[in-house]
Design a protein that fits this description.
The complex is a heterodimer. By secondary structure, chain A is mainly alpha-helical. Chain A has 6 helices and no strands. Helix content of chain B is 80%, strand content 0%. Classes of the chains: A mainly alpha, B mainly alpha.
Chain lengths: 131, 61
């Protein structure tokens, strides 16, 4: 394991969280940044176009629903600026019945999960664990 | 914003494609390995999708 190219990782991880692919761009991994950022962006936009609802961190009447609400919120929040812009532009889709809305919700959370993978990858490059 | 109304299969394949791209890139260290791993993951996603679909089909007969 080489540590010779270690850099400060906090700004890299912050950039990776706020702008999907931003951490890799910060580290001058341009094509990787474009593929990762593009995939997260497409998944998030597809989720919005499916009219998926965003999760709200609130307690429900049972533990499972509470865990889903908080977990989904973390997944949404992991998209960084995409999530904040969506909220700022007033997106407030209610949770309706139907497979399209269900898929939309999952796509929005999955975009955040994929962005977390990209953040971990950017962190590993920054600290010299990966090339 | 336009509305995206796809079938279950189309939604699932779109998900598999995007997840495979990201997991392929972060999961391996060389470009060749990334491509192979991404294709492998996509194949696994689609294979599982069809497998579960047939399982549900026979389960509901």
């Amino acid at each position: 394991m080489s540590q010779s190219h270690a850099r400060p990782w906090a700004p890299v991880v912050l950039a990776a969280w706020l702008i999907p692919g931003g951490g890799h761009l910060f580290l001058r991994r341009k094509w990787r940044a474009s593929f990762l950022g593009g995939a997260v962006l497409i998944m998030f936009l597809a989720g919005l176009m499916m009219r998926g609802p965003l999760f709200v961190p609130e307690a429900a009447d049972n533990l499972l629903s509470t865990a889903i609400n908080y977990g989904g919120f973390i997944g949404n929040l992991a998209c960084g600026m995409l999530y904040f812009l969506t909220k700022w532009f007033g997106y407030a889709q209610p949770d309706l019945a139907g497979h399209m809305y269900d898929y939309g919700s999952k796509f929005l959370v999955s975009a955040g999960m994929l962005n977390i993978l990209a953040m971990v990858d950017a962190y590993e490059i920054a600290v010299g664990k990966k090339g | 914003m336009p509305k995206m109304a796809l079938t279950h299969l189309e939604f699932s394949i779109l998900f598999a494609l995007l997840a495979s791209v990201v997991m392929g890139i972060v999961g391996r260290s060389t470009d060749r390995e990334r491509l192979r791993y991404g294709l492998y993951l996509f194949g696994c996603f689609v294979g599982t999708l069809f497998g579960l679909a047939w399982l549900m089909y026979f389960g509901h007969r």
